[in-house]
Amino acid sequence: MHVCLKKADKPCIVAFDEFQQISKYPEKNIEALLRSHIQHLSNVHFIFSGSGCHLVTEMFLSSARPFYNSTSILELYPIVAEEYIPFVCHWFDVYERAIREEDVLVIYRLFEGNTYYMQKTFHEAFINIPIGSSCTLDILRQTVDGVLEEAGDGYRQLLSRIPERQKELLYAIASAGKAEKIMSAGFIRKYSLVSSSAVQAAARKLMELDLLTEEDNIYFIPDILFRMYLQWLKNTNIIFIPS
């Protein structure tokens, strides 16, 4: 690939998705090796993207890392509701189906603007209603339940490989939604955790696995559907979309 890019007769763009994963490769100094090749490709533009915000940020902003100050950083925010809601309503209408803006907003808020889970929900709902019908809130509720159930097998297998103390912390943070001061006596007591040192160790490991994220001292589970699944495991009567 390096040879092909070097010989390219026109500008090229190479995109790396989930770029933070290279830090987990067994090879030593993979970042330095990649940087040594990239820096000589003057006709190639690179895009490095990743969902592990703190890991990607460290790769490019830490002076000890090979990619330090080698890029311009752009944070991608969720599509704003004011643009996404008309988009969904328009395409339902184009194919002779209807959906209310306020119901689209319910899903938008539920998934916090996550385009993958919103798109999956609306797609599943769309294909299950006939032409001339309306996609109601009840249909969306059933669809979300189906999406959650579909993901359940994978999440169960994932949880089976996680040590108990890490699972306990995941349940606690999922219940809180977003949690501050997770090593405080109050948080530990509220969620019946073992100790601050145990929480600290569990949090560190979960962040290494990208199952937990910390931003501005706030901890949360980045996979929103996984968070919902954990909430459901602790309370099977939970209602994600109220009537």
UniProtKB/TrEMBL annotation:
Gene Ontology molecular function terms on file: ATP binding
Keywords carried by this UniProt record: ATP-binding, Nucleotide-binding
Listed Gene3D superfamilies: P-loop containing nucleotide triphosphate hydrolases
Domain of life: Bacteria
Annotated signal sequence range: none
InterPro entries named in the record: P-loop_NTPase (IPR027417)
Keyword Metal-binding annotated: no
Keyword Zinc in record: no
Protein name: ATP-binding protein
Taxonomic source organism: Parabacteroides distasonis
